[in-house]
């Protein structure tokens, strides 16, 4: 057991956040923690980390428990480079490596007992260095940095000069390399592009230690966790499996809970009726007894009382069959082309998902489609009857000067009754006096819900959505997806939310830096599998090419050696000593080790942790063989010296 919470409660003033949370996490478990915004997920992290104390209940931790926390804001001071900052995690290995270099220097000058002492210390240091992963920590650090989106030419950049998002990525890299007993990861994908997120999924799926993840990225959870903790009503329910399996099991459990709630409500109604009829009659004593029992009953919650945004799109005007045509389109700013040669036909009712790294042109394409930016080349042609609506992730479509109700009225007009508008806003969690709040006082999530409410109420027949789930919690994302699947118009959406894309989109447009855009006819999971299959095939082809080149070099060297004339000197007289023979073998093995080390340092291998592990195992085998040969060489050299004396 790493830690255990038993009936833990936590309140802030009069607000009860945790109302009896119980769960346990064991070594090596990979767990996701989900729940609505404000449910108390971060509070649980702070309790586990010891940053806060609980009010009641028990919280047990394993002795010498090491926790690694992904901070939301990471800073670096001093002159350290990006690579140096990552390598600081291995300070003990770096010190040990420096000591080994000192001992190597000492061995060259020491004699007798002093030489034996130094060699013994060197052997111990070498074993400790190897056991601690000393032969791979440089390549591991570089591999993690590359995986999280740092280019090699950025390794020498000063860490303190990085942007906020880059610092957070560097902080995540250090945390992954540290490998504590448990990682607490709060939205670890926030500052990562699609490639980096996919790399992190692969890395964490093979991660040996435990972690607990808070994330709105449901696709990420699907690929990284084997258990889900659902925090709801201040308590935690545990579900085995990934996120998709959790949804299925949760639905089953909610149906059971709702049935239990309805049965209890029926029993309460009958009991209250009995009390009302008999409290002043002949059965007064029984009525009072039942009233006492009723007061002690723990009331169940109705699952249907969960406040989730109930998105319901209204029918739209019909467009022509061909909604959008792109002909050799190039998008960008000024003379800078971000993506070119875009050719696409989108038909009525189709849903296009646009994905790719930061700065590759996704939002620029949307703005070009809306004529907010000029096309750099080619043409954009909209079909007949098209009326577009745009959801801007910067939330420029809501006016801070209005209150919530007035902001919706800018779309609805003055002929619509307040009751209808307030009812519609209630579906987006604006209840009671919330509709009179100033837009400027709303949180990012609230502004996002208001912007979506305006767009949906407008009844446009083509939706252009730029990161529509960015400000929504998981429950609201789910209901948005359900509504969009009922929508009878056409959807074009930019999103990093791959679970959302998987549920909504029928086509994918993938932007990659320097390679333009790749069109895929199918959903996100199909694209994901095809894309990764192509990457794997490319890696195999590259590895085969490298092996062929090395084999050709070996054959050329062997051919050159065979062409040299044989020596006519007396073989017995020139026969090398045993120590010399061992030196030659050691040099051969060390040359092979150098080749392996160089291969492990390449970008392709650094990103491929399976291959890196195989090469590391071979490196360690050669290292062990080298140590045996060194021991034999020392014995042979000592014997030859003794014979000479």
Account of the protein in words:
A 6-stranded mixed β-sheet has the order 5-6-7-3-8-9, with helices on both faces. A 6-stranded mixed β-sheet has the order 14-15-16-12-17-18, with helices on both faces. Strands 2-1-4 form a 3-stranded antiparallel β-sheet, covered by helices on one side. Strand 17 and strand 18 form a beta hairpin. Helix content is 48%, strand content 18%. Mean pLDDT is 85; it is low at 567-573. With 645 residues, it is an alpha/beta fold. It is built from 20 helices and 18 strands. Helix 5 packs antiparallel against helix 6, helix 9 packs antiparallel against helix 10 (284-296) and helix 18 (578-600) packs antiparallel against helix 20. Among the domains are: 247-305; 322-522, Rossmann fold (3-Layer(aba) Sandwich). The radius of gyration is 33 Å and the shape is globular.
How would you name the CATH homologous superfamily of the domain at 322-522?
P-loop containing nucleotide triphosphate hydrolases
- The CATH architecture of the domain at 322-522 comes to 3-Layer(aba) Sandwich
Helical content class: 40-55%
| Main pleated sheet | 6 strands, mixed
Percent strand equals: 15-25%
Termini Cα gap: 63 Å
- CATH fold-level topology of the domain at 322-522: Rossmann fold
CA radius of gyration: 33 Å
> Which overall shape is indicated by the principal axes computed on the Cα atoms?
globular
- Which assembly state applies to the chains in this document? single chain
| Residue windows where pLDDT falls under 50 for at least 5 positions | 567-573
Number of strands: 18
Average pLDDT metric: 85
CATH class of the domain at 322-522: Alpha Beta
Order of neighbouring strands in the sheet with most strands? 5-6-7-3-8-9
- Total helix count? 20
Structural class: alpha/beta
């Amino acid at each position: 057991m790493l830690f255990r919470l038993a009936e833990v409660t936590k309140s802030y003033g009069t607000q009860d956040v945790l109302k009896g949370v119980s769960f346990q996490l064991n070594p090596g478990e990979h767990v996701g923690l989900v729940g609505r915004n404000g449910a108390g997920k971060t509070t649980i992290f702070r309790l586990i980390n010891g940053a806060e104390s609980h009010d009641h209940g028990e919280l047990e931790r394993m002795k010498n428990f090491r926790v690694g926390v992904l901070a939301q804001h990471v800073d670096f001071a001093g002159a350290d480079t990006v690579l140096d900052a990552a390598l600081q995690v291995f300070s003990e290995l770096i010190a040990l490596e420096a000591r080994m270099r000192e001992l190597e220097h000492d061995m060259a000058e020491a004699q007798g007992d002093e030489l034996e002492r130094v060699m013994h210390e060197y052997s111990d240091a070498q074993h400790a260095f190897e056991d601690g992963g000393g032969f791979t920590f440089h390549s591991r650090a570089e591999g993690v940095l590359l995986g999280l989106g740092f280019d090699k030419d950025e390794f020498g950049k000063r860490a303190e000069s990085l942007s906020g998002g880059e610092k957070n990525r560097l902080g995540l890299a250090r945390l992954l390399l540290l490998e504590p007993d448990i990682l607490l990861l709060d939205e670890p994908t926030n500052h990562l592009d699609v490639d980096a997120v996919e790399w992190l999924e692969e890395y964490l799926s093979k991660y040996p230690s435990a972690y607990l993840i808070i994330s709105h990225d449901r696709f990420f959870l699907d690929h990284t966790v084997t258990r889900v903790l659902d925090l709801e009503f201040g308590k935690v329910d545990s579900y085995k499996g990934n996120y998709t399996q959790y949804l299925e099991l949760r639905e089953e459990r909610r149906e059971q809970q709702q049935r239990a709630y309805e049965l209890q409500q029926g029993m309460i109604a009958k009991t209250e009726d009995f009390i009302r009829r008999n409290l002043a009659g002949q059965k007064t004593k029984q009525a009072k007894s039942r009233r006492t029992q009723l007061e002690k009953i723990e009331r169940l919650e109705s699952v249907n009382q969960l406040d989730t945004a109930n998105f319901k799109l209204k029918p739209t005007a019909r467009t022509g069959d061909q909604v959008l045509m792109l002909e050799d389109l190039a998008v960008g700013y000024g003379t800078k082309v971000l993506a070119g040669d875009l050719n696409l036909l989108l038909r009525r009712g189709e849903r296009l998902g646009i994905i790719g790294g930061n700065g590759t042109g996704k939002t620029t394409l949307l703005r070009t489609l809306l004529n907010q930016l000029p096309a750099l080349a080619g043409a954009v042609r909209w079909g007949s009857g098209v009326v577009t609506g745009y959801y801007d992730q910067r939330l420029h479509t809501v006016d801070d000067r209005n209150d919530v109700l007035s902001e919706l009225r800018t779309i609805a007009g003055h002929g619509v009754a307040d009751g209808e508008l307030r009812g519609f806003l209630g579906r987006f969690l604006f209840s009671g006096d919330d509709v009179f709040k100033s837009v400027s006082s709303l949180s990012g999530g609230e502004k996002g819900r208001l912007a979506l409410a305006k767009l949906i109420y407008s009844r446009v027949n083509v939706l252009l959505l730029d990161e529509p789930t960015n400000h929504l919690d998981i429950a609201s994302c789910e209901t948005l997806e359900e509504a969009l699947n009922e929508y009878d118009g056409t959807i074009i959406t930019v999103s990093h939310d791959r679970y959302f894309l998987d549920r909504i989109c029928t086509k994918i447009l993938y932007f990659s830096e320097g390679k333009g855009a790749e069109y895929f006819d199918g959903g996100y999971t199909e694209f994901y599998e095809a894309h990764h299959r192509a990457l794997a095939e490319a890696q195999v082809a590259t590895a085969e090419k490298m092996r062929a080149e090395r084999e050709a070099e070996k054959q050329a060297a062997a051919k050159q050696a065979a062409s040299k004339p044989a020596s006519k000197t007396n073989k017995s007289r020139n026969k090398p000593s045993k120590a010399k023979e061992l030196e030659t073998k050691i040099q051969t093995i060390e040359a092979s080790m150098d080749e392996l080390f160089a291969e492990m340092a390449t970008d392709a291998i650094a990103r491929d942790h399976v291959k890196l592990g195989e090469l590391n195992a071979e490196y360690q085998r050669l290292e062990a063989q080298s140590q045996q040969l060194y021991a034999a060489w020392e014995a042979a050299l000592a014997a030859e010296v003794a014979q000479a004396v």
